[in-house]
Specification:
Elements lengths: L4 E7 L3 H9 L4 E2 L2 E2 L5 H11 L1 E7 L11 H21 L4 E6 L5 H15 L3 E5 L1 E2 L2 E2 L6 H9 L3 E5 L17 H15 L2 H4 L4 E4 L6 H16 L3 H9 L2 E3 L9 H7 L5 E2 L9 H13 L5 H15 L14 H24 L1
Parallel strand pairs: 1-4, 4-5, 5-6, 6-9, 9-10, 10-11, 11-12
Antiparallel strand pairs: 2-3, 7-8
Length: 346
C-alpha cells in the first residue's frame, strides 16, 4: 500500500500524560477509555492504512483538568518535549501540534511561543472549551497574537461540553460536534478570524456542524453584529476541515460543497478511533461518487503540504469552486431580496 497520506488528526498518549491523568483518576476521554498507544503501534497502523506522515496531538482533556496554571504549564511542557523528541527522531513520519495550557492565557502564550520557536512544533492544538471557557471568548488576544505573528496552524479539537453528560449519549458521538461548532462560531462572531488573519484554523471531524449550519450561523452573527452575512459565510468556509470520522455519503456532499478548495484535510482520529473505524471512513471517501480522483489525492496529501511544506511540495493555490461561487451568489441575492421586501413594508 502506498504511504502517501498526511494525517492531521492523529493522537498520542505519552507516558507522562497517561500518568498525570491516572493520578487525577481520569481513565477515559470523550466517553472512551484511554487507548493503548506507542510509537511502534502508530507506525504499524500507518503502514496498514497508507499514512506516510502524521501530525500528532493529545486529545481532550488536554491539560484543562489542572486548575493550577503552573501545574498545567509544567505538564504541557513535558508533553511537548516528548512529542518534539519523537518528531526529531522521525521528522518525515511524525510532526506534532503543541499543547497549550488553556484556559490560562499567559501560560498558553508562553508555551506556544516556546514550542513554535524552539521545539519546531507544526502548530498548536486548542480545545473547543477548556474548563468551560470557550476558544474565541474575550481575553484571549495575547495567545492569538503569538499565533498570528507566526502564521501558525491551530488545530481545534473538541472537549466534553460544560455541563452534565446525558446518560447513554457519549461525548464523542454528538457533543464533540457541538463543541467544535461553538468555538468556530465565537472565532468568527468575536472577530478573531478578522483580526488575526494569519492563523490557519483546522476544525476537527469535518467542522462539527459548521458546513451544515453555516447559513443559519451567518444569519445569527448578522443579527448580533450587523456584519455582512456574505463576509461571515466566507470566514466559515475559510476554515480548514479534517475528515476524521466524517468521510461518509451523508457528510461529504455538504463538506466538499462548502469548504474552500484545498481546505479539506485527511484525518484518522487514531487511536481513539480504532483501526477498523479508520478503514470504514477511508472507504467512505474512496467510494463517494461525488469526489474525483484528483480531489481524493488532494485531501489525502496535497492540501496538507500547503500547511506543512516539510512533508512535501506545496500545491499552487486553487481557484474558488463553482459550487462555492454559486452559494455566495445565492446568499447575496436572498439578502438583497429580503432587504427590499423589508423596505417596501415600511
Amino acid at each position: 500500500m502506498s504511504l502517501d497520506r498526511i494525517d492531521v488528526h492523529q493522537h498520542l498518549v505519552p507516558p507522562v500524560y497517561r500518568e498525570a491523568l491516572g493520578a487525577h483518576g481520569i481513565a477515559a476521554a470523550g466517553g472512551r477509555d484511554l487507548p493503548d498507544w506507542s510509537p511502534a503501534a502508530a507506525r504499524d497502523m500507518m503502514a496498514g492504512v497508507g499514512i506516510g506522515s502524521s501530525v500528532l496531538s493529545i486529545s481532550t482533556p488536554g491539560t484543562a483538568f489542572l486548575s493550577d496554571p503552573v501545574e498545567a504549564a509544567r505538564l504541557a511542557r513535558a508533553v511537548n518535549d516528548y512529542a518534539a523528541e519523537l518528531s526529531a527522531g522521525a521528522p518525515q513520519t511524525f510532526g506534532f501540534f503543541a499543547t497549550a495550557p488553556m484556559p490560562h492565557i499567559e501560560a498558553a502564550a508562553a508555551e506556544a511561543t516556546r514550542a513554535l520557536d524552539t521545539l519546531g512544533a507544526d502548530g498548536v492544538v486548542l480545545l473547543g472549551n477548556s474548563r468551560g471557557v470557550y476558544l474565541g471568548e474575550e481575553g484571549q488576544d495575547d495567545l492569538f497574537r503569538v499565533l498570528d505573528e507566526r502564521s501558525a496552524v491551530a488545530f481545534v479539537h473538541p472537549a466534553d461540553l460544560p455541563g452534565p453528560a446525558v446518560p447513554g449519549a457519549p461525548s464523542f458521538a454528538a457533543d464533540f460536534l457541538l463543541d467544535t461548532t461553538r468555538a468556530a462560531y465565537l472565532l468568527v462572531r468575536n472577530g478573531i478570524r478578522e483580526r488575526f488573519p494569519n492563523i490557519r484554523f483546522i476544525l476537527s471531524h469535518g467542522g462539527g456542524f459548521v458546513p451544515y449550519a453555516s447559513h443559519r450561523m451567518s444569519l445569527g452573527i448578522f443579527t448580533q453584529t450587523g456584519r455582512s452575512p456574505i463576509e461571515v459565510l466566507g470566514e466559515f468556509a475559510g476554515f480548514y476541515f479534517d475528515t476524521a470520522l466524517s468521510s461518509s455519503a451523508a457528510a461529504l456532499p455538504t463538506l466538499l460543497a462548502f469548504a474552500e478548495p484545498g481546505h479539506v484535510l485527511y484525518g484518522s482520529d487514531w487511536p481513539f478511533a480504532p483501526e477498523p473505524a479508520v478503514h470504514y471512513f477511508d472507504a467512505g471517501l474512496t467510494e463517494y461518487p461525488g469526489c474525483d480522483e484528483a480531489t481524493r489525492r488532494a485531501i489525502h496529501r496535497a492540501n496538507a503540504t500547503a500547511l506543512f511544506p516539510r512533508f512535501g511540495a506545496t500545491p499552487a493555490n486553487a481557484p474558488e469552486s463553482p459550487l462555492l461561487t454559486r452559494m455566495r451568489r445565492e446568499v447575496r441575492t436572498r439578502l438583497f431580496r429580503a432587504v427590499a421586501r423589508a423596505a417596501n413594508r415600511h
